[in-house]
Every structure is written in C-alpha cells, then in structure tokens.
Write a structure and sequence with these properties.
Layout (H helix, E strand, L loop, with lengths): L4 H5 L3 H19 L4 H18 L4 H9 L6 H15 L2 H15 L1
Length: 105
C-alpha cells in the first residue's frame, strides 16, 4: 500500500473502500507487461480519475510524479492538480472570483 498505515487506519470506511479500489488498479497496472511509459500513463490516468471524485493524498501524487522523468510535461500536469487539491485557500478563491468577475463583465 502506498499510503502510510496510520493514515489509512484513520480514514472512513467508505474512503477506505475507494482507496482499496485505487490500490488494486495500481497493483494490476504494475503487474502488467506493458512498456514502462505505457504503465506510467495508465498510473497517471488512474490517479487523475480518482482525483476527479476524491481528495487525493499526497503520497499518490508523489508516486505518480516518480513515474515520470523531470522533463516530462505530465509532471507539470500532476503538479497543477495536486497543488489544487492541497492549496486552495479563501484568498485564492477570492482572487479567482475577482478575476472572473472582471473577465465575464
């Protein structure tokens, strides 16, 4: 399991269920005989799909990021989505509201 046991143990039963499903997907991808790049793309896809529905722990973003070399454009994509998951603050939301208010009016 990618998550620390202490974190996992504190999760709700419903979140544990979806984490187990994600872990199974990732395990199946890692067991496949696809080339390394194909596996990395599938891992990225699985984690991004999960992140569309659930708050995604940083360990999954780090895992996904390690699958890509530092020059890859996917690292930027991963970073933007992970940043959104963990750093949206009221100040940022106010900034966005102000920006879109000016743009749409």
């Amino acid at each position: 399991m990618i998550l620390p046991k202490e974190f996992y143990d504190r999760c709700s039963p419903s979140y544990k269920t979806v984490i187990k499903e994600l872990e199974k997907k990732l395990s199946d991808i890692n067991k496949s005989n696809d080339e390394k790049t194909m596996n990395a793309e599938k891992i990225l896809s699985a984690i991004l799909d999960f992140s569309k529905e659930y708050l995604t722990p940083k360990e999954y973003w780090e895992y996904c990021s390690r699958k890509f070399c530092s020059s890859d454009d996917n690292r930027w994509k991963i970073s933007k989505i992970a940043y959104y998951h963990f750093f949206i603050t009221d100040d940022f939301m106010n900034y966005l509201y102000g920006y879109f208010s000016r743009v749409w009016n």
